[in-house]
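Reference record
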Amino acid sequence: VEDYSVPIVSVAMSFQGGSAQDPEGKEGLANLLSTLFDEGAGPLDSAAFQARAEQLGITLRFSDGRDAFSGLLRTLRDDRAEAFEMLRLSLNELHLDEKSIDRMREQLKSQIARRANEPTTRAGDALREGLFGDHPYSRRSVGTIEGLDAITREDLVNQFRKLFARDNLTVSVVGAISAEETAAMLDTVFAALPQQAELKPVPEAQMRFGQRIHIEADLPQTSMIMALPAVKRSSPEFFSAYLVAQILGGGTFS
């Protein structure tokens, strides 16, 4: 979408394959990988990469979902060439050095430990495990402390190679940039990625309803989470269901 009303360019990208691709026993692999994209790439170490992004006012971040690994770049039009180069470096010349890996691993472990006894976190974990059983969707996308401890640099390198390719990539570009400039940017940033991703198939989830799971806790409040059968995202009824959820209570029902 070409739009010059503000001098900003936004590039959103999504690679099919997320935390559902984490190997058993190494839960949190995709989450840990998502924290390392500004921890040094190409000629820039972690501090230099982050300082350069801040100096240019560039937003560059990545996140993992269960079925997709997403990224966002936002930059002023005048800085687009340097911003695209930083994105290219992060996707093609990422350092993944042990020092950064260990630091980000400890941060994620602290977050997990801090939330371990939160009622909503415990209820959500129990709900997923009850619904999905041994399916990958039953696992916490953030991972576990044990899973994060088991992850090596080689695991991260291999997962990066498997997830980041051209055949599982979707890119959306909006802002002060022409179609011709966008085409050149796509070639510059993404052309060197492998042609094909190496994704393991995620089986159709067979959800188990009709359960009541109760966790006793010495707390003054009760947290309750409910799950009912709904429609697939690909269903033509999805947006009707989405609207119904908003009417019932936007942000409460989903």
In short: The mean pLDDT is 95. The longest helix spans residues 98-115. The radius of gyration is 20 Å.
